[in-house]
Structure formats: C-alpha cells, structure tokens
Design a protein that fits this description.
About 20% of the residues lie in helices and about 25% in strands. It is of the alpha+beta class. It has 6 domains: about 1-145, Bulb-type lectin domain (Agglutinin, subunit A); about 145-285, no CATH class; about 285-435, 3-Layer(bba) Sandwich (Hepatocyte Growth Factor); about 435-470; about 470-580, Phosphorylase Kinase, domain 1; about 590-810, Transferase(Phosphotransferase) domain 1 (Transferase(Phosphotransferase), domain 1), CATH 1.10.510. A hairpin with a 7-residue loop joins β5 and β6. The longest helix is centred in the middle third of the chain and has 32 residues, at about 440-470. The termini are far apart.
Length: about 800
C-alpha cells in the first residue's frame, strides 16, 4: 500500500533542492527539485514548451535551452501542479500521485519484504536509482530510456530478465508520449551487432556494423569523439548492449531520437553551457535503409545515387524508374551465375558500409585468410569481411544471401570481399599479372604509348578550345575580362552540333522556360542524360553577366542542394550552359498553383526549407568561393525527382572574402518581394540579404502565398506583416496553408514560422546567420524573440516604398 497522505506534511520540514537522496517519508512535490551532488542533473516536475501538462523528469542543470533526458509519466501527465513523488516502504517502491491520492505512474517494482527501507538517489550520471537496505540497486531509470541516450546508459537487452532498453521518440516537442521512432540494437546468436532507427518497427536507417571503436560510417564529428568518450560493446551470457563512458570533464553529450526520426548528438561545454549539434543521422539520401535494393550500392558522389556492385547488373527496371531514378527497389542480380567452381573468388571493395548483418555468421577468432577459405568452401557464402579494426586481421563476418544496404563512404569505410564467378574475376587476374617478368617490358611500352596518346590528346583538346575561343573574337571579347580559361577547364566542353542534336535543333517543343538571359531547352545527351540547356540571347546584357557568374561560381561549387552545371559551349556568338535537368521544375510551380500545391505536404515543405538552408549555408561559409546569391526566390529553387531543393540561377551572385560587412552597389538587381530593405533602399548587400530572402521563402512555403501581391481583408500588410501580426497574437498556426492541416506537425510549423520571422527582421545585424538558422530548424531549444519585420505597416504607419534614398544608388528591379 502507499504511504498515508499524512506523511506529506513532512514536506514542510524538508528542503529538497540541495540533496541527492530521497528517503522514506521524504517526498518531492511539484515545485521542488532534487539535484545530484555535482550539480549536473536535476529531477523534478516540468512542463515541456508551451504545454500546461506536468511531468516528472530529469534534465541537465543550468543549460540553455533546458534538455530533458528522462520522463517518468510520459503516458500519463498531470493536469495541474498537484503531483507528488512518493518513495514507499511497503508495496510499490516509487510512484506519482495526484491531489486526490490516485497513482498515475509507478516504478512497477515492489519491495521484497515488509521491513525494507529503500532510498532513492539521483546519481552523477543522471540515473535515478532505488537501493534496498543492503545498498543494492532494485530499480533504475536507465532501464527505462526516454528519447535520450547519455553516457553510462545501455542500449541493448538483458538476457536474464528479457528487458530491452532502447530510446523512443516523443510524439512532438511538447508531448513526451512515446512516438513512432525507436533506436534498436540488433543482436542474436552468431550475428554481429548493429543499430537501427525504426518507424513503427519498420527499419528506416541502419548504423554499423560496429568496428570495435564506433559504428562504421558514422557522420564526422566536430570534436574528437573517440578521444573524449570510450564506446563499449558488451556481449555476454547475461546481456548484450552498447554504451559509452566519458573521458572528458569538459564536455557532456546526449543523443536524442527526435519526433521526426532523426538521431541527433549534441555536445555541451562547461564554459558556456550552450548545446551545439555534433552530427545527425540520417545525414543524406543514402542513409535510407536498403535504398538501392539487393546488391545495389549507394553513393552521394554520383547521380543517380544507386548503382550495382561490380559483377552485378540491374534487374528489370521498375515501371517508374525513368521518372524516379531513386526507385531501385528490385536491386541487382549477378551478371554471371555462380557454379561453385574452383575459379570462383572474391573482389575487394574498399571504403564500404558493410551490408546488413541479419544473415551473417560471426567468428571472432578467425583471421582474414581463414575467413576467405571458410567462405569459399561454403557455396552459399556470398561475401566476407573483417568488421573489427582494433584487432588487426582477426574477426570474420560471412554473409549468406543478398547483400542489403551497402554504400560507399568518404571515410570510416571498411573492406568488403564479394564472391564473383571466375569469368568476372578474369580481368582482375590479368591486371595483377601484367607486370610478370615475361611480359612486363612489353606491357610497360604499350601502356606508356597509350598514356602518351591520352596526354597528347588532352593537350590538343585544351589548345583547340583556347584557339577556338580566340577565333570566336566576339564571344571571347565578351568573356575574357572576368572568365579565364582555367575556369572553363573544370567543365566539359560540348560542341554546338552536340547541343543541337540533344535539343532537336532547339525545337520550340523542347523549350521549358525563358529568363533575362534567354531561352532554356530540355535536351538528351548521347549518354541518355537529361539536361537543361540555357542559351544566351544575343540581345541580353543581363544574360552575359549571368553566364560569367555561372561559369565562375557554379563550376567550382558542389553541394546536394545546388543545381549542377554539366558543361558549356561557346561557338561564334553562341554561349550555352548545360545543367542537370530538374523534372519537377521550380518551387513556385507547385507552391502557388491551386491544384498542385496539395502535392507538397508538410514533411516535403519542411524538407525543402531545410535543404535550402543547408545550400545557402554552404554558399556563405563552407564553399571554396564564399558566395552571396542575391536572387533567392521560389522560381530559383528547383526540385528533383524526390522533391529535393536545388538552388539555381547565380547570375546576380557575388563573391566575398571572410567578412559579413555590407557592400554597396549602384545597381540594385533582384526580384521585388524578396529584396532586403538595406539592399532596396541603400544598395547595400551582405550575407544577411540572402538570410532575408530565405525568411520570405520560408513564410511563403508555410502559407502557400506570395509575399508580393499579398492582400488581407483586415489590413494592408505584406505577407511578412501578416505573419508578424499573427505571431504577436499567438496565432501563428493560422498562417498555415489549408492544404497542410492533415499532414503538419504543429510545433514544427510554429518553430519554422518563428525562424522565418527572425530572418526577415528590419535591421540586418539582428538577423541570424545561416549557420544559426540551420541549427534552429533542427533543434528543439528556446528561440530568441523576433523584432518587427521589414515592410511592415502598423496601425499608424505606411509601408516603406522600395526606391532610391541617396543619389549614389540607382534602383533597378527585375520582376522575373
């Protein structure tokens, strides 16, 4: 039975805010906290975000924002502040009761005898434990994880009790109720451990397998994680688990599975008590589980991302593969069937994410050579590898059946040995033997001749291009001032005949758009690649500038959220740029179309917003050339087959070097509705000009309305002003496009609107950097309060006009 309610009177005599132990007859009421001796963690009642519901939880002490690591009553919240945590002498050890004495949560562990006098302690690790009179732990919070994994916790299974320990996401940022996503450690007899992110038991992403130090291919950490933390993998008769311990007193860390299924690791420094995101999984498209099907390999360095492993060919293509090159559900099959003959062998593939280990046999004592023999002797063995990099060549994984979820890594990859037929290995064997004593000299002479031929061809081609450009004096005269031959050397050159053939001689039926530069055509190259061909109009001065900027900027930039420049052509007066083709065209064709906007549900829109943010961050901070785009708008955000956003149109882009200071120009060029006030009024632009344009895009994506031409029956504000009014009245959700009502995650929408308003603040210095924007979009911390946006008309104000205010500025607006 529970303690009599009269024991609650003892609370008046107890100060619980400075101790780390709860004894029988000493309870915690809402409004009080208990902290560990090192002041690192707190336990108490709290309300997440703007929620009014109350929960008992544990969180990091004195951090910004507050980060909860464990919640007791996540399924059964209190509706007011009347809750009390009770440590019992008889019956249930730990429970939460409301003011009516009803138990709403309990530890589900009962005292073994009537004389037990348990104590509860919040340890320095953040673990809430209950000990009996012999100081043995009879219950601990670490056995019941919430959405967060911290040092000294265990991810795995107790084989004695059968209890599995794994994090489960919250339903939303304000609701700790168990959500759809879990992080599970997979391990059964003779299998090798790996970690999955699952959605309702369906695998979404796989980490691993474990290489003895970490999970191979884990995204690169901003800090030396392996130096600060020691990862442990324990496999015994009693338990199987993954965990880590801290080697550093400077940093704390937490790994959380978010309501949208992202596994995020955050670091906390003891100096500033601010959380910094370290890495996120899934990181890219190739992190989607089994994306390329059986025997398919994924790489982010190619398009499409999927291809077959060497020795394999694609199965019959799915019906929509031409429309969606990412649909590789059927995967690949062997080019040559295995016959278990003596000539069969293994091809080594390097820098790989090893396949899913659900169909493997593991032997930790075998050498790599012994592993090869064992796999070759078993005709059903399809591949082998040594998974553990800490033990030299000791350890053997053998796969039986299809190889699933393989990808290529830039770093942290491992060697995979795939079984192939003798004929598939023949070429590889010849390569190994060409430098034999008998044939070596002859082969070297032939190879040298071939190499010399390629070198001569390359030099001649380069010289031909240079002479070609010099011969085309009109084109070269336009280009030579700002575009050097070296800039063009990084791009493939296409002849005018090739381009004409690809576009059916620039047929009007292949025309897909036109801008200030000239027309754009869809084309198909000889290698079957679909491209977009931008042809410079002879009368376009703006197009010439754009051509220069595209060559200088895009040719040197590579990012998944930037449109890729495939090549160029210069012939007499013709100047042509060739881009990857975006079948879904631009964002505005969906966003502002009454019939097509429903295709963009909230997850797709939020994905587009995040992709744009990462692309702009790359331009501002991480690229070889630091770029200010100056013309970010819905029409310049292109969408690929999977609705991934690609920033395009760098005609107005400008380079800057390591400074965020504003630059002044006499020609203000851009698109009305997206231009920042300091640029429109004073001709001053900086990275914060792009931030403003991004903020406008965010509010347009959320609302489905254009900023330019927006009207509302109650006021004359722009879309920015309307969003500001709703925010001030705590009605931001009303900005949401009606078609998103059924698919939206309300806290995510509110946070996105908040970030958008921070980006469109009137003064440039008050806007966040794109680095901060990216973090704010994916984190769950408290955001700063936005100030009044630009172009806002208050009750007694007029909307500021976009016009010149000093004689040095000539404002030119291009509504493109």
């Amino acid at each position: 039975m529970l303690l009599p309610t009269i024991t609650l009177l003892f609370l008046a005599l107890v100060t619980c805010s400075a101790v780390d132990t709860i004894y029988v007859d000493q309870n915690i009421s809402d409004g009080e906290t208990i902290v560990s001796a090192n002041k690192k963690f707190e336990l108490g009642f709290f309300s997440p975000g703007n929620s009014k519901k109350r929960y008992l939880g544990i969180w990091f002490k004195n951090t910004s924002p507050q980060m909860v690591v464990w919640v007791a009553n996540r399924k059964d919240p209190l509706n007011d502040t009347s809750g009390t945590l009770i440590l019992g002498r008889h019956g249930i050890l730990l429970s939460i009761v409301n003011n009516g004495g009803t138990t709403i949560w309990s530890s589900n562990e009962e005292a073994s005898t009537t004389n037990v006098s348990p104590i509860a302690q919040l340890l320095d690790t953040g673990n809430l434990v209950i000990k009996d009179e012999k100081y043995s732990i009879v219950w601990q919070s670490f056995d019941y994880p919430g959405d967060t994994f911290i040092a000294e916790m265990k991810l795995g299974k107790n084989l004695v009790t059968g209890r599995e320990m794994y994090p489960t996401s919250w339903r939303s940022v304000e609701d700790p109720f168990p959500g759809m996503f879990t992080v599970r450690l997979f391990m059964v007899k003779d299998k090798y451990p790996q970690v999955y992110i699952c959605k309702n038991s369906v695998i979404q992403t796989r980490l691993g397998p474990f290489d003895g130090i970490e999970y191979a291919g884990r995204p690169k950490s901003r800090h030396d994680f392996n130096r600060m933390y020691k990862v442990k993998m324990v496999v015994s008769q009693k338990e199987i688990y993954l965990g880590y311990s801290a080697n550093s007193t400077i940093l704390s860390s937490r790994t959380v599975i978010t309501p949208v299924g992202k596994l995020e690791t955050w670091l906390l420094t003891t100096q500033n008590h601010q959380w910094m995101q370290d890495f996120t999984v899934p990181k890219d498209h190739c992190d989607n589980y089994g994306l390329c099907g059986p025997y398919g390999s994924c790489s982010t360095d190619r398009y499409p991302n999927c291809e077959c492993l060497k020795g394999f060919e694609q199965k019959e293509k799915s019906y929509d593969l031409n429309l969606n090159p990412y649909n590789w559900t059927n995967g690949c099959r062997r080019s040559k069937v295995l016959d278990c003959g003596p000539g069969e062998g293994f091809l080594k593939l390097s820098s790989m994410k090893l396949p899913d280990t659900q169909n493997v046999v593991f032997d930790g004592t075998m050498s790599l050579q012994e592993c090869e023999v064992a796999c070759k002797d078993d005709c059903s063995c399809t591949a082998y590898a040594n998974p553990n990099i800490t033990r030299g060549s000791v350890g053997c994984l053998r796969w039986f059946g299809d190889l699933i979820d393989v990808r290529v890594y830039e770093m942290n990859g491992q060697d995979l040995y795939v079984r192939l037929a003798a004929s598939e290995l023949l070429g590889n064997s010849i390569t190994k033997s060409i430098f034999s004593k008998k044939y070596g000299i002859h082969i070297l002479l032939v190879a040298s001749a071939i190499g010399l031929g390629f070198a001569v061809a390359y030099v001649c081609r380069k010289k031909k291009i240079k002479l070609h450009m010099k011969g085309n004096r009109h084109a070269f005269h336009k280009m030579h001032a700002t575009v050097h031959i070296d800039d063009l050397d990084e791009l493939p050159y296409f002849s005018l005949n090739e381009i004409a053939e690809a576009t059916d001689n620039f047929s009007i039926s292949n025309k897909i758009g036109e801008g200030g530069f000239g027309p754009v055509y869809k084309g198909v190259l000889k290698d079957k690649r679909e491209v977009a061909v931008k042809r410079l109009s002879e009368t376009s001065h703006q197009g010439l500038d754009e051509f220069k900027n595209e060559v200088i900027c895009i040719a040197k930039l590579q990012h998944r959220n930037l449109v890729k420049l495939v090549g160029y052509c210069i012939h007499d007066n013709e100047m042509i740029l060739i881009y990857e083709y975006m079948p879904n065209k631009s964002l505005d064709t969906f966003l502002f179309d009454e019939t097509r906007r429903s295709i963009l549900d909230w997850p797709k829109r939020f994905h587009i917003i995040n992709g744009m943010a990462r692309g702009i961050l790359y331009l501002h901070q991480d690229s070889r050339l630091q770029i200010i785009h100056r013309d970010l708008k819905a029409g310049n955000i292109l969408l690929d087959n999977d609705m991934n956003p690609k920033i395009a149109d760098f005609g107005l882009a400008r380079k800057f070097v390591g400074s965020d200071n504003a630059v002044r120009t006499k020609r203000v060029m851009g698109t009305y509705g997206y231009i920042s006030p300091e640029y429109a009024l004073h001709g001053q632009f900086s990275t914060k000009s792009d931030v403003f344009s991004f903020g406008v895009l965010v509010l347009e994506i959320v609302s489905g309305n254009k900023n330019r031409g927006f009207s509302h029956g109650d006021h004359s504000d722009s879309l920015l002003g309307h969003a500001w009014r709703l925010y001030k009245e705590n009605r931001s959700i009303e900005l949401l496009c009606p078609s998103l009502r059924d698919s939206c995650i309300i806290p995510e929408v509110l946070r996105t609107v908040h970030v958008g308003l921070l980006c469109v603040q009137h003064h440039a210095q008050e806007r966040p950097t794109m680095f901060s924007v990216v973090l704010m979009l994916v984190s769950e911390g408290v955001l700063p309060q936005p100030k009044q946006p630009a172009f806002f008309a208050g009750p007694s104000e007029k909307v500021q006009s976009v016009s010149s205010v000093n004689e040095d500025t000539i404002t030119q607006l291009y509504a493109r």
